[in-house]
Amino acid sequence: MTDITNRIIKQILAVPRGRVSSYRDIAVKAGLPNGARQTVRVLHSMSEKYGLPWHRIIRSNGTVALEGEGKELQITLLRSEGVGVSDQGRVFLEKYRV
């Protein structure tokens, strides 16, 4: 695993229960100012293997990126942690962003 991947994983794991962060914010905190897509790739390929809280990472505009069943699951998981999410999948960033 690369140093960049390790840094991204560390930042994802740092998002506490009941809070969210964006793909871009994770990348910036990992030292990759233009690395939002790298964050997406790490989440897609390593969430299950490393137990990453993938559902806590959303778009920088506050919306859930997934569609269909994935979107519903993410909304359900966020709500189960007390995160306010609209039925359309928008998180109230002012309150829940790390």
Description:
This protein has 98 residues and is mainly α. It has one domain: Arc Repressor Mutant, subunit A. The protein contains five helices and two strands. The chain has helices at residues 3-13, 23-29, 36-50, 68-80, 93-96; strands at residues 21-22, 57-58. The chain has a two-stranded parallel ribbon with strand order 1-2. Helix 2 crosses helix 3 (36-50).
Distinctive features:
98 residues; mainly alpha; 2 strands; two-stranded parallel sheet; Arc Repressor Mutant, subunit A
Topology:
Blueprint: H1 3-13, E1 21-22, H2 23-29, H3 36-50, E2 57-58, H4 68-80, H5 93-96
Parallel strand pairs: 1-2
Helix pairs in contact: 2-3
Compact summary:
The chain contains 5 helices and 2 strands; from the N terminus they run αβααβαα. By secondary structure, it is mainly alpha-helical. The termini are far apart.
Number of domains: 1
Number of helices: 5
Mean model confidence by pLDDT: 96
Give the overall shape. globular
List segments where confidence is low: pLDDT < 50 over at least 5 consecutive residues: none
Question: Which structural category do the helix and sheet elements fall into?
Answer: mainly alpha
Biggest β-sheet, characterized?
2 strands, parallel
